[in-house]
Amino acid sequence: MALLYGSLAYMAGILIGRAIFDWLGMRCPLPEWLWLAPFGLLPLVLFLQRRNEATMGAGMRWPTSAGFEPPRPSAAPGLLWALALCAAAGALRYAGHPFTPCWTPADLAYYNLPADRAFERSAPKMTLFGFVDSYPLVADVKQRLVIHVHALEIDGVQRAVAGKVRLSTGIRERYRYGQPVRVTGRLTTPPDFDSFSFREYLARKGIHSVLYGAVIEPM
């Protein structure tokens, strides 16, 4: 039962950590290893709890036949501390792996346009170099691809980057998994809708960019 409580506290900590991360306006994640620190204190909490139980000795007996009403059992202090540490670990876990990492010029998503410019014809287009990183998903007259990008072109100069981009294109040309390609289009941040966060949905798959108006050239 303690393991179940600890797991629930850990998941609650992730939600709390996300709320605090957004409320503070933090942009860059904390060190990834930091969430392990609270777990390192769990053995100490268990040791102190055992020591406290040993010093208290046997509990008092409350015979109901004599009219006594036994006190209601309360949560042990050690359990409460353990749950607090699990919640802290969950909060630090999210702070070390937020949905929106701290982008640098070496990341593809660093060059994203805002989501509200996705359908702006005047928005600047970006040329990306990479390979097809998923099996094409064909539906009606469209096919959806994920491209693993290793370079982009800015002002005629190629820069090394790392990241994945999702795009849709027609079915006239077919592409295969692992095929090198050059794609051009409007690189934007995935949008958030009223009842669904497309950005977070793709983030769980390691994708932080989408490409609109894509033109694909096999290499």
UniProtKB/TrEMBL annotation:
The DUF4131 domain extends over: 30-215
Protein keywords = Membrane, Transmembrane, Transmembrane helix
Biological source species:
Candidatus Thermofonsia Clade 3 bacterium
- Tell me the classification of the organism that encodes this protein: Bacteria, Bacillati, Chloroflexota, Candidatus Thermofontia, Candidatus Thermofonsia Clade 3
Transmembrane regions listed in the UniProt entry = 7-26, 32-48
UniProt-recorded name of the protein: DUF4131 domain-containing protein
**Which is a Pfam family this sequence falls into?**
DUF4131
Does the record's keyword annotation contain Membrane? yes
The UniProt record lists the keyword Ligase: no
Q: Which InterPro entries match?
A: DUF4131
